[in-house]
Amino acid sequence: MVIYHLIQRLKDMDICGEIILVPNCNPIGTNIKAGEYTLGRFDPVNGTNWNRGYFFDKGAVEHFAKTVTREESIEGIKQRFRAHLSNAIDNKLAEPWGLGLAQQLNLKLQQMAVNADFVLDLHNGPVSTRHVYIPEYAKDSAKLFNIPHCIFIPNVFAGALDEATFCPWWTLQESIKTNLAREISFNVEAFTLEMGSQEVIDFNEGNIDATSILSYLNAKGVLHECDIKPKAMQRLGVYLKDYKTLFTNWGGMVEYMAKPGQTVKKGEPLAQILNIDDLDTDNGSRTLEAPCDLIPILHFPSASVLSGTQLYKVFTNYREL
Amino acid sequence: MVIYHLIQRLKDMDICGEIILVPNCNPIGTNIKAGEYTLGRFDPVNGTNWNRGYFFDKGAVEHFAKTVTREESIEGIKQRFRAHLSNAIDNKLAEPWGLGLAQQLNLKLQQMAVNADFVLDLHNGPVSTRHVYIPEYAKDSAKLFNIPHCIFIPNVFAGALDEATFCPWWTLQESIKTNLAREISFNVEAFTLEMGSQEVIDFNEGNIDATSILSYLNAKGVLHECDIKPKAMQRLGVYLKDYKTLFTNWGGMVEYMAKPGQTVKKGEPLAQILNIDDLDTDNGSRTLEAPCDLIPILHFPSASVLSGTQLYKVFTNYREL
Amino acid sequence: MVIYHLIQRLKDMDICGEIILVPNCNPIGTNIKAGEYTLGRFDPVNGTNWNRGYFFDKGAVEHFAKTVTREESIEGIKQRFRAHLSNAIDNKLAEPWGLGLAQQLNLKLQQMAVNADFVLDLHNGPVSTRHVYIPEYAKDSAKLFNIPHCIFIPNVFAGALDEATFCPWWTLQESIKTNLAREISFNVEAFTLEMGSQEVIDFNEGNIDATSILSYLNAKGVLHECDIKPKAMQRLGVYLKDYKTLFTNWGGMVEYMAKPGQTVKKGEPLAQILNIDDLDTDNGSRTLEAPCDLIPILHFPSASVLSGTQLYKVFTNYREL
Amino acid sequence: MVIYHLIQRLKDMDICGEIILVPNCNPIGTNIKAGEYTLGRFDPVNGTNWNRGYFFDKGAVEHFAKTVTREESIEGIKQRFRAHLSNAIDNKLAEPWGLGLAQQLNLKLQQMAVNADFVLDLHNGPVSTRHVYIPEYAKDSAKLFNIPHCIFIPNVFAGALDEATFCPWWTLQESIKTNLAREISFNVEAFTLEMGSQEVIDFNEGNIDATSILSYLNAKGVLHECDIKPKAMQRLGVYLKDYKTLFTNWGGMVEYMAKPGQTVKKGEPLAQILNIDDLDTDNGSRTLEAPCDLIPILHFPSASVLSGTQLYKVFTNYREL
């Protein structure tokens, strides 16, 4: 949705450099339905998440770091490193025994992103507020989007595109610092932006999201003579370790009382649960309470819930940015 | 959800006769998920709708009608006919080559309903207003529920529980009229009540729905000393032939602009469609207009739509009751 | 598979008329997987069978029959009737409120078949012998294929392509006979050929199947100077009413002891069933026996079976052709 | 299947110690079907593999190792370590924010296995030969089963039950060796036995598999006065790194020419592939050749294959044991 608005609005803008917009990165996921809803997140053949097959070889980056000298220009290092990364992706894609489908798709996308300074991976998911994943070293960029909830992530690779983009540069910076005591900032940034439910389209909200992204791009100097600025608004941040998942240990029908974005105090109700097997007893309905002060960021999109379901993902120990 | 409230509220009431509440009639459908949503409507093994395996043998009813004399009391006919129906279901269930799973479950439920005067089949489905299916002969009962949208159905069997309940009685009445010129009303009624989305639970709405059902039961004399009366409200009705389905002949992402229950004039926008394959052309987005005056009753629950999708089901040629 | 061999072999043949080969008629069904297997038979969004959305309007055919005179040539009738059918399909496809996806695809295919004299619908399904559905009036054609098991079907429309092809011509013949006492044979034939499991590809068997089809086409005069003749072999036939489905009324793990095509006497074992919930009792395993003399034609493809599963489809009261 | 036979045969045997047989460890996976086949391997809600949610905390084991003295008896260490492991599982299960469904089920099973000396995890999967995963330190046990293909795995945890069982003991042995230069063998062994296709039940083969397992148990002294001995047979082994997966980089229909267990030389045909989109060109069919000498152990169970499918898993660099 936001891609559509970005395309419309960038048409009339003066762009410095190049912007590549890739809609529909999981072409297969988008088309698969089981029942009326879309099975967008994983490969129905084998359960593989469509967004966790990106590539990062930490050892190879550390090895590359050893080739950097105290004198080499930052631009020179960037250029050589991009060639190194691109080459590594090509080698991976040419793996003689082949690769799984998610990994094939991911690597082709990663190859497209290898020369970019700013990589924004736009996601849709369950019922949620807008939120963004930000590498800790780029914390200042949190204020350049109009996104109220920010998650700061460490230099740990778990297979996603943003990590596959920033982990190499972050690792290179750190290795060079260790090796040469030389402090470099490459100014490459990557984010995952969560844009709300995949099952709801709203053209107005899409346009608001486009403004949020344009405000980041403008702040980074990508747009000429553009006056879009980040909104003055409350932004809350957490470290990844404080972004917690609340699993159920029961099955039932659920009314989600706490809405995404809402401040909930410890002990306040999160959900009302209907136990279908006990409708005629006093256990027919009960309330689930917040285990601590928190803000729900997203909840499971269905009212019908099994034991072990990710009911809510929540901010704890959050603070204003 | 409404079952829960009915159980709570009927506990303290004085009931005339017997009320059987059967929650979770498709136990298998309810538990099956593919992705995060629930695949409640059909058997994932073979595509069989869980709610279209009920039983009606028109010829056998017409045959039975011939045994009715001009003198036989209505209560006598009802008793004999119920025994006939119950026997027919038992025979079907004992089919030596077996039955499909949906049919097995349906017939067991139908056997439970065979002695009832009033059968209410409570459904949940996609995003919709509350609506109710009513046999044409029981049109007056439309005003006994607090349901704004009513669909009047003819004496045609398509496999559902309400039809399986009223088609035999309706056919019997008509056959007796033809055979003996005797006009009888058996006062057996059956309805399908559509209670909104299966993916949203709301305890307050469940209680309001319970009041609606209690108001019908009270009007029918099932509850003693109960003062729940149908609400004064607008009720709109259509014949089944005017309850139309609008299919897509394109695939895309959809914003549902017309909301269930809303009056839409011919030519007004129903939906805004995003064509992912043409985002960068003028065909990136377009509007779908209402082909005639209508009221959307439900729309497809997902924003991602293929060609041939049931986008909306709508009232046309409706009138106030 | 057989399509591949037909293409290769027809390349070098002298064809009289035109042969249209349409591989992959359910493009969507073929690509959908849930787990490792293919969900080929129904639309996973709504459970609609991909092969039951064809079109037949019996009333319109009877109406058309009234326009036929005693003098009109057979070729003249055929030409007019084909135009009538083609027009009816076009009208249906242009339905202003749209059509479901299966129906859209089916009607486009039916339109391609409307001018054909011989329509062969090639299916794959579960674990089965080769078998063929033949309209009763074309019984003699059973001996033109090399297919051991033949099912003769009456003039009843259930939505399949073969029926959608022959029901109109059959109904027209019968109406003309009734109206004018004129006996006409239009020599239009349609069949559904079941070519074994969709989950097993065997190039050799595909070639054998191609020979079987070429032998039919040759007998019908489609191929010039071709010496492929039907094999001398045992062929068994049943009426559709004697082609029976054996459903389970239990769930469990199954060893299919009776193989497709094998003669089984009443009381002989069909299957050995493992009851997982009773492994440690004497009910851990039991044998299912044939309820009458029969030949299994196909069985459910999975060893894991629920209650209400179509375990076997079998020939009863079969006879040699 | 094999569980059934083990139960029957162990009934009459004299067992030393205790044998716990747990059939149907993935109760949810076993019951879920999408189409006619069983979706046994992962949770259809979120793609989580049902067999990769077991628990191993390497740091905690190394910490425990420091409490072991040079004098402590092996039995004493085992007893204390079992209490430690059981306690760690309990703590994990009591996680206040809850756990995913697969992990809940896995941990309960792991708790049942914590006191066992021999843990056999019996799997079914796609079309395969019998094969077994064996920790490298227990290589000698490869000859105690009647299983022709053995995979030796290192001390690396990837979430499976066998690893969750042996990684702690293996790590403990190694830590004690490092810390105290004391060589201990705890004689705890764990294996994953792959018993062929989940979609085929064969009572005779189940009994043969039971003999294979009883021969291991007897060799380990679990059975008194039992004369079941491992068969003299060829057994082939590989290291995990040489057990390779061959992915497709095309989609199509496949005939699996090389059968599981068969010796294939480099360049010999593995599969014949039908390209549905090119049936009428010379690219309609082509052969996939073995990239090196190998033995296929399993192949994908469906003939319909997408790009990125695990077509074969094969032994390379294998040797006779």
List keywords for this structure.
alpha+beta, 2 domains, Aminopeptidase, 321 residues, homotetramer, OB fold (Dihydrolipoamide Acetyltransferase, E2P)
- CATH classification class of the largest domain in chain A: Alpha Beta
Distance between the termini of chain A: 28 Å
Helix residue percentage of chain A: 25-40%
Identify the CATH architecture of the largest domain in chain A: 3-Layer(aba) Sandwich
Individual helix count of chain A: 7
According to CATH, the homologous superfamily of the largest domain in chain A is: Zn peptidases
Keywords (chains A, B, C, D): Hydrolase, Metal-binding, Zinc
Pfam families (chains A, B, C, D): AstE_AspA_cat (PF24827)
Cofactor (chains A, B, C, D): Zn(2+)
Protein name (chains A, B, C, D): Peptidase M14
Written overview of the protein:
The structure is a homotetramer of 321-residue chains. Chain A has 321 residues and is of the alpha+beta class. Chain A has helices at 2-10, 27-31, 58-65, 74-93, 101-113, 161-180, 203-219; strands at residues 14-15, 33-34, 37-38, 118-125, 127-128, 131-135, 149-153, 189-197, 223-224, 236-239, 243-247, 252-256, 269-274, 285-289, 295-299, 304-305, 310-315, 319-320. The first copy, chain A, folds into two domains: 2-234, Zn peptidases (Aminopeptidase), CATH 3.40.630; 242-316, OB fold (Dihydrolipoamide Acetyltransferase, E2P), CATH 2.40.50. Chain A is globular and about 75 Å long. Chains in contact: A-B, A-C, A-D, B-C, B-D, C-D. The interface between A and B is large, with 43 and 43 residues.
